[in-house]
Amino acid sequence: MLSVVCIGETMAMLTPTHDIPLSEATELFYGVGGAESNVAMGLAAMGVETHWIGRVGRDGFGTRILNDLTAHQVGVGGVEVDPALPTGLYVKVPATTKSDVEESSVLYYRKGSAASAMSPQMLRNPAIGSLLESAGLVHLSGITAALSPSCRAMLHTIMSAPRNGQFISFDVNWREALWADEDKTVLATLANQADVVLVGADEALPAFGTNDEAALRALLPGPSVIVLKNADTSAIALMNDGGRVEVPALSVDVLEPVGAGDAFAAGYLSGRLFGLDQRSSLRRGHLSAACTLTVLGDRGPLPTSEVLAQILGCSEEEWAATRVSPGRIDSPVLIGTTP
Prior knowledge:
The protein is of the alpha/beta class. The protein has twelve helices and 17 strands.
């Protein structure tokens, strides 16, 4: 099994507890989160050797991030600790029944963070260079491109380097607030250099100006496959040879939507790493996302390998009849089981 390297920013995360609005909260739950490290932890949980590369501050937040990733079996030997710049922070503001807020939102405090100082120079770090050289897959995202010019330069350096059999995945991960004063056309340039691009249909419109399948493939002819995610409807693999595979999303009793996109990426990419075809890889992505949608955290555990194999191998009718709810999967191929 080839190793995977995920590169990006991981931040400390705070969120109010007990359905209390942020303005009235006296307690905040403290955790960590970041798109690329979420994918890293998801892949590690699936038995893939995974490393996260990034930068954190020499502070308690940075130490917590390194400890959490290590506890999830993600390698952190390629992480730089900045002696001056702080670890980034974000606040998750959930919708509550005690305020007028109807949808969850996120507040970012990441300007001038240690991660925003990532640059091509960082790639000359011997530990980082060694991890990148031996990786079979390097996973990147559009979030990093929005952090700073030096971060964008680092991504361009990685994308333009000889692959030598390695493949690169790029999750657009559109964040409106991060691109307010930035040139978003860089996203198309970066995506076109990747081998696999993951993008939601809702993200493709602001990021690329279109979510039409033919227009996306014309705009991005480079990737071998573009995975277009249609929220709770389906996911479509658009191959550069004209092939198209669409897999409907599973029925899910959603508890918390945060983290589902990263879980899908981990599930899909693990399928590719395990040599599965596009349909099975998309199904694996859907199932991983569904399991995350039914928990409060950013990652939900996949079912056992035996249950997973049964679900991935089921018929279209059985797949359509499968439902995932907190602590349970109901499918014609199973007799209800815990994920």
